[in-house]
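Thread: quick sanity check before group meeting

JM: Hey all, I'm pulling together slides for Thursday and realized we never actually wrote out the predicted structure for the chain we discussed last week. Dropping the sequence here so it's in one place. If anyone has concerns about the input, flag it before I start.
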Amino acid sequence: MKIEGQTKFVDLLWKGKLLIEHKSKGKDLDKAYTQATNYFKGIKDRDLPQYILVSDFEHFRLYDLDDREIHQFDLADLYKNVQLFSFIAGYEKHDIKPQDPVNNKAAEMMGKIHDSLQAINYTGDDLDTLLVRLVFCLFADDTGIFNKGLFRDFLEDNTNEDGADLAPKLQYLFEILDTPSNQRIVDDSIYSEFPYVNGSLFTKRLRTAVFNEEMRSILLECSNIDWGKISPAIFGSMFQSAMDSKKRRQLGAHYTSEENIMKVIKPLFLDELWIEFKRIKSLKRNKLRLLKEFQQNISKLNFFDPACGSGNFLIIAYRELRKLELEVLKAKNYEEYGYESFQMDISLDFNSVIKCDVNQFYGIEIDSFSAQIAQVALWIIDHQMNIEASLYFGASFARLPLGEHATIANGNSLEINWNEVLDARDCNYILGNPPFVGARQMKSNSTQKKDLLRIFSGVNGAGDFDYVTCWYMKATTYIQGSKIEVAFVSTNSICQGIHVGTFWKELIEKKGVYINFAHRSFKWGNEAKGKAAVYCVIVGFAMFSKKNKFIFENDLKNNVSQINGYLINDKNHYLESRTIPISKNIPNITIGNQLLGWDFYSFTLKEKNDFLLQEPEAEPYFHRFIGSRELINDIEKYVLWLGDCPPQILRTLPLTLERVKLVEEKRKESTRLSTRKLAQYPTKYLTERVPESNYLAIPNTSSERRTYIPIGYVDKDWFPSQKIFILFSDDLYYFGILTSYMHMVWMKTVSGRLKIDYSYSKELTYNNFPWPDVTEVAKEKIRKLSNDIISIRSKYSSSSLADLYANPMPPDLLRAHHNLDRAVEKLYRGKQFENDTERLSYLFELYENKTK
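JM (edit): ok, ran it. Output follows.
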């Protein structure tokens, strides 16, 4: 090659992988390395090596340029370091990270090919299948399925630079990959070097695409990525994002992290398998026989994800199963031969040694492209695990032709008979994260809503269920009378609020489901900046009760005796939605004003002042407006209320009338009949609450980071919004009970959530709360302690409730709350409560007594 005008000869260059520079005995290896790197100036970027090897034939030095590691040894010790050169056979161990830029880059490049083909109307299943085949070939090129770099050489040396012949040659290559070697036309070209793949991946005949020079160049650039570093566990999700140009700017932001997938599979099956394996290893007798039986048993387990997407959960489950199997093989080897290292007899059939295979994994996916990606991704992870096993056995192995494959059905999981995909008699575990769609997000005539009402036909309240509950119900029907265990990721709303008293009552009481483990609410996935976080739970259930049950909270594992629909350690309780409180002589609460005014009637302080500069006569009709946010953060907001404005005065206020007209028009445009009717009364709110006295305000939503909801008294001149609940009483006894820790524990458990924030409910939280039965003397003590809290708050006049109730709270305010908490708890019973579980058990017991 030409370097700075001079012709230089490198001893060996393996494009993209290895450069070797040898020197005479005793020569300086540092200079040899410098000379080797100088060759880089004449090498294309895509051909730059990952490794440099320099030697003087007695001393060797291997540079790993990716990991920035240097390995040095003498010729006599070469045999001890031979594993450093496993990359020559394609068996290179990679530390695969989901966030590795190679995943992003690969998905991005394939996205460009997708867009180019789509632009010429090469679309649909043909496009999806073509891209999946290309992904397989690119991966095979870097991992020993094909001879190293074979597909890259095919692209570079066997197709024209203008790309005109690329599509038909790919078409022919796919036919070759689907044809056994002994049935091919005898050919000395590069096609003859490709192995028979089978597995139906290349069987379907596709329309012939059209490539150009740019598309060929992109595909060549793709071939220069080290696909051995791709993480199949997340690549499918990223690949899907790459196919959507709108999502591409957030590439990598929406995959399910391996950490979260492990939260499902470890308690579902993996932990128990490892415990059993370690138990067998500790035995003194029959160990070899039991290890063989254990391996045979895990090779017969079948896993099913009925909403598998691109296969993330199945992929990680298979990888972990193979890791366990390899440890079993090592233990068998040590037990049989007395040493851990193992050289496999090349006459042995690898399939007789490795028994776990992708045919143990089943899925259903509605998107055909995702279903194909899942299939290929499982083959990819299988091959990566074969590489790992090969490094131990000392024998190169690839499962070709592909004989076994995962069963991934393409269709609507809620319409397909699951038994036709995997007979329930053969299933062991169901897992996954079905779609996150809330009840309010589904339109009444949508396919999802129809699915929901069909699956829960005859179940009261089903219209308010989240979409994910369909998979719970279908799984429950599928596992009847079996030992199948299920674990689903779900939005946390299904274990809060109304879902517990309706949905879980149906599953537990009527269908006989037992919850055996649970992860309480935690942040799910890897959301991009600016995106609302999704907060989830994981529920593991079956038709039988396991002896050992676990609740995970903040990554702490708690052994419990029972788990109910709220995911707490207590017997089952089902709260109903009620219109009045269950406790006697307790005042009703109500929500504030619902404007239905599209912000035409609401104003910031500046907007109000600007308005009044133009129309000062409107000032009597402005009122301070307060909702959860305004109450907690001391924000000034105002509302225009014309309910008491005489018609003759309203006619003299043109700017105000303009607002009225805007509200009227917006209401007329509504698709809801009730809203259109309200257009006849544009000066009225949907609901009007005009306070006649001061009132106690309870925020509709409040941060879960606070120990106490910041409730407080509000002046009667302030209009409450629909974002707060109002209690018309100045009796401090009600303040004391509602702000007590006993009420907070109840609220946190039975209320719904908005993301992870508490969402207070009149019908579930307040009306179902069991108030203590007390004397007037006891009430007076609560009033005094409540007054202490209000007095201390007033000392911090410049601080908002958000400031006062952030952690840490001011010490004097916190002490005052603790004093109140102790007094309230004594109203319930004399003995002190040990923990929140005990408090909840007591409150639920009291609830049941009050509702009998």
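AS: nice. The chain has 29 helices and 27 strands. The two ends are 91 Å apart (CA to CA).
JM: adding both to the slides.
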